[in-house]
TrEMBL record, chain A:
It holds the Pfam family Cytochrom_C_2. This is Cytochrome c. Heme c binds at residues 139, 142-143. The lineage of its organism: Bacteria, Pseudomonadati, Pseudomonadota, Alphaproteobacteria, Hyphomicrobiales. It comes from Georhizobium profundi. Binds 1 heme group per subunit. One of its GO terms (cellular component) is periplasmic space.
Length: 150, 301
């Protein structure tokens, strides 16, 4: 009996693996979304260090950074399923699940805006600075209501 | 003999009670405090308004994210605390707000925590910090507030239970906790540090969230800006002393955070600090640098 159960369980796990092929975004949702946001932070840093005058302005690198932000924020809100409210040092606030539609909308808006900007990166730093400032207000718009104070 | 002791104790208790009652009486500003004030400077009033971030508590929540919209100070935001729920009042320029007030009323509210009817405000209104403000700035802020739109929104009454609903109890709180000078000592000849101290300790009332409180809700000033539990119950308000979570930040990093909302590794500002940072972003760069300089010299915790 026990061995039958073990075989059934093994078959189930194989079929589960077939339905959901492994990808870089497989895993615990809390960890996936943290990784996605870490990449967004790194990409923002690429641009922010240019704005702060710490690195030379490079429109190609700006476009790549915006592309990463667009891709990650397009799927970011998918990693907040029911049951992932706590654990893995999550800083997600319960307000996310109370206002899921607004949360998803903000993430999508960020993605759309990043893609638009990636297609029209200014040639010089002076023109990019106000664009960066305006674009990154979107970070606070979401973090104000949906991420814990830290 | 026992009876005499009992009588003496009763007299002592009455005297003590009487003293406390007297100590707890609302304390208005003297007439002389108002001497020499001219017409309010609205530009400076706006700067003070943004540095103190009045809108983050008194503004309508839907207008608070849009810095360009006219600010309507409708009140109504609820502040949950261990003592009850406070409903932030309308302070718009209409009659429900401060439209019918005199400047003396406003100055007594800001600098003494006393309402126009002579009662004490709850210290959820952070007048302990504002009491260190310069009355000229209060005058400018007054002028600016009166230039903003009116709202007829009525905030609900505070929901506070005994004994915290006894108005004179607030007088005792004031006696215990109203600051009688700056919270930290700095070089009095350094004008940059003095400006930073003024913006942090008085106008910006940073300590109200970043400093832990004792059981009566008074600031533990020997732990100035050392961080505290978040009153909302989620997460913590960080320690911003030079040994705290900003230990590795330069003064330039701090000033950049106030300007942009980004930490040195480009994590972004979150929670209630978002609105505070938006206000700071509107200040002159010299004010952000002054705040940063002050945060670098305060005692480490």
């Amino acid at each position: 009996m026990k061995s039958r159960l073990a075989i059934a369980a093994a078959l189930l796990s194989i079929s589960a693996a077939l339905i959901h092929p492994a990808s870089s975004q497989d895993g615990v949702p809390q960890e996936v979304r943290q990784d996605l946001m870490d990449e967004v932070g790194d990409a923002t840093g690429v641009m922010g260090n240019m704005v702060r005058g710490r690195t030379d302005y490079d429109p190609g690198a700006v476009a790549a950074a915006l592309q990463t932000i667009s891709e990650n924020t397009a799927v970011f809100a998918d990693y907040f399923p029911e049951g992932s409210e706590t654990g893995y040092e999550t800083e997600a606030l319960p307000a996310i699940w109370e206002n899921k539609a607004d949360f998803e909308r903000l993430s999508q808006e960020m993605s759309t805006k990043a893609a638009e900007l990636a297609a029209a990166v200014p040639a010089d730093l002076a023109s990019f600075q106000p664009v960066f400032q305006d674009f990154t207000r979107g970070c606070g718009a979401c973090h104000e209501d949906y991420r814990q104070d830290n | 003999m026992l009876k005499r002791i009992a009588i003496a104790l009763v007299i002592l208790a009455a005297a003590l009670g009487g003293t406390l009652w007297a100590v707890a009486a609302p304390d208005r500003l003297p007439e002389t405090a108002f001497e020499g004030l001219g017409e309010p400077d609205l530009a400076n009033g706006e700067l003070i308004f943004n540095a103190g971030n009045c809108a983050s508590c008194h503004g309508a929540s839907e207008t608070s994210d849009a810095a360009d919209d006219a600010v309507v100070l409708t009140g109504g935001h609820a502040i949950e605390s261990d003592f009850g729920t406070f409903h932030v009042p309308n302070i718009s320029s209409g009659p429900v707000g401060i439209g019918d007030w005199s400047f003396e009323d406003f100055a007594n509210a800001m600098l003494r925590g006393v309402a126009p009817d002579g009662s004490n405000y709850y210290p959820a209104f952070p007048y302990a910090s504002y009491s260190m403000m310069d009355i000229a700035d209060v005058n400018d802020l007054w002028g600016y507030l009166r230039s903003l739109p009116a709202s007829d929104n009525e905030a609900p009454a505070h929901e506070v239970s005994f004994p915290f609903n006894v108005n004179r109890a607030i007088g005792i709180w004031k006696y215990l906790y109203m600051p009688d000078g700056a919270y930290v000592s700095i070089d009095p000849n350094d004008t940059v540090l003095r400006r930073g101290q003024y913006l942090v300790e008085a106008v910006g009332h940073c300590g109200e969230c970043h400093t832990p409180r004792d059981i009566l809700g008074g600031l533990e000033t020997d732990q100035w800006l050392a961080g505290a539990p978040n009153p909302s119950g989620q997460g913590t308000i960080p320690n911003v002393t030079p040994a705290g979570s900003v230990a590795d930040w330069t003064a330039d990093d701090l000033a950049y955070f106030f300007e942009s909302g980004f930490t040195p590794d480009f994590d972004s500002v979150g929670g209630s600090m978002v609105a505070v940072q938006r206000g700071l972003a509107t200040l002159p760069a010299s004010d952000r640098e002054a705040i940063a300089a002050y945060l670098k010299v305060i005692p480490e915790h």
